[in-house]
Specification:
The chain is mostly helical. Among the domains are: 5-208, Leucine-rich Repeat Variant, CATH 1.25.10.10; 360-455, no CATH class. The chain contains 22 helices and four strands. A two-stranded antiparallel sheet has the order 1-4. The protein has a two-stranded antiparallel sheet with strand order 2-3.
């Protein structure tokens, strides 16, 4: 097979699908041919390609068909994993991970032997970027053994699942290796280590120290490597789905700011948006006053960074022959240029601007979702206690809604208008089901919602 990883993966995947559609007899003959090729052919790329093909065939067959060959395949791949050539043992470990993922509980009989093999290869002098010979050093950099070992451990965790709770020896070995992955410098190993911790928190949460785990996720969620950042955000999302406020209390005080800054950098998309939505859904109604302050801070938050004013003049710049206008929210917050002691304008200045509109839009969506939940509870259960939470804070909600409805970004403006409509809907439901306790105001002229209705009647 070709030595390019992409081509090797494509060819092995195609062979696996062919075996799936051709039947058991063809699969048996093909597996026998691949085993014979591995034994007779000593060329590293050929052996690596055959190893990966065995893993893909087992993945595509699945079920009882794969169970007929799993013992033979695991034995061959375990033997190839000890090969000193980096290409051979890297793809053999990757194939073992595929077999473990696809076999599930059928792989439980081979977990102990595979785990011992992975731990042995992780510390072996013949396997590793720093300990490999000069002949194979460049190959080891492109195909690191530590990354393949971490993938294999992650597959073993998923293969055992909740059964890890009853296997203390296996669990302790996996925890030890996972801790070592976190101390590596390779982004691939760190990413897989975070995935291992995420799955361990799902299957054996009682054996994972919650506070260090959350602090580790907080550390890596702002990483410059996108894979590490995504793995950390996935772990944080799963943790916050169980108890968002507990995570906030456990982490450092800066976690909340980090979440919104990551939201700002991610343009309001991806996993970070799901994290904020789940967070608002869990505690939005019960902690409405805190969420109103939080959303108001996001909408008005100003970030400052340095700019070079030598190439800009005023608030309008000409770029590629076209006039470029700055955002109104940004233009209103731009700081004046710095002046030195002699009254001369300096070439560097501070520029202040709001968070990106996508982040502010996500904050408005959270508030809309909180009011939607209040509206649903009031309409369904006639719950006066839910409405009582909202009434003292109607003024703050209206203030946020009016501010958003006058924004320069159309999407935020629409959200502000929707928010005003939802306030009216909630109040209408309260009038129909629960008499609004206006006694908290000295007169009807002090009720914010009635003031709003009078102004727009």
């Amino acid at each position: 097979m070709h030595d390019e990883p992409a081509v090797r993966n494509l060819g092995a995947e195609a062979l696996g699908r062919l075996c799936q559609s051709a039947g058991t007899d063809f699969s048996t003959k093909e597996i026998s041919y691949l085993v014979d090729t591995i034994v007779s052919n000593r060329e590293p790329n050929a052996r690596a390609g055959c190893a990966l093909a065995l893993g893909c065939i087992n993945t595509q067959l699945g079920g009882m068909a794969a169970g007929l060959h799993i013992k033979n395949i695991v034995g061959i791949l375990s033997s190839l994993a000890g090969d000193p050539h980096p290409t051979v043992h890297f793809w053999a470990l990757q194939a073992l991970a595929k077999v473990a993922d696809s076999s599930g509980l059928a792989f439980s009989a081979y977990v102990s032997s595979t785990l011992g093999l992975a731990a042995q290869l992780y510390v072996a002098e013949t396997h590793g970027e720093e300990t490999s010979s000069q002949l194979f050093s460049n190959i080891e950099v492109d195909q690191p053994t530590s990354s393949a070992v971490s993938d294999c451990i992650n597959s073993l965790i998923n293969a055992l699942g909740p059964d890890l709770q009853d296997q203390a020896k296996t669990r302790n070995m996996i925890l030890t290796l996972t801790f070592q992955f976190g101390m590596e410098t390779s982004p691939l190993v760190i990413t897989t280590g975070l995935k291992c911790l995420e799955h361990l928190c799902l299957y054996v949460p009682g054996h994972i120290s919650f506070k260090p785990y959350i602090r580790q996720l907080q550390l890596w969620m702002t990483s410059e490597d996108p894979d590490i950042r995504d793995a950390a955000l996935n772990g944080l999302h799963n943790a916050m789905r169980k108890g968002a406020e507990e995570v906030i209390r456990t982490a450092d005080a800066s976690l909340e700011d980090q979440i919104w800054l990551v939201m700002e950098d991610a343009y309001g998309r991806g996993m970070i948006k799901n994290i904020i939505q789940d967070w608002a859904e869990q505690s939005g109604v019960q902690m409405l006053d805190i969420w109103l302050k939080r959303i108001h801070q996001v909408l008005t938050r100003v970030k400052t960074h340095r700019i070079d004013i030598s190439s800009t003049s005023g608030q309008q710049t000409e770029k590629n022959g076209e006039l470029e206008l700055q955002d109104e929210d940004v233009a209103g917050l731009n700081a004046s240029s710095q002046v030195d002691k002699n009254g001369q304008e300096m070439t560097a200045s501070s520029k202040q601007e709001l968070l990106r509109w996508q982040a502010r839009l996500a904050a408005m969506d959270c508030l809309n979702e909180i009011l939607r939940k209040i509206e649903r509870d009031v309409a369904k259960h006639d719950d006066a206690s839910v409405l009582a939470i909202l009434q003292p804070r109607i003024a703050d909600v209206i203030r946020i809604a009016f501010s958003a409805s006058t924004a320069s970004v159309i999407e935020i403006r629409i959200r502000g208008i929707q928010l005003i409509g939802r306030i009216l809907q909630v109040w209408q439901e309260s009038v129909m089901t629960i008499q609004p306790p206006l006694t908290m105001y000295r007169s009807s002229d002090e009720c914010p919602i009635l003031i709003f209705l009078k102004l727009h009647s």
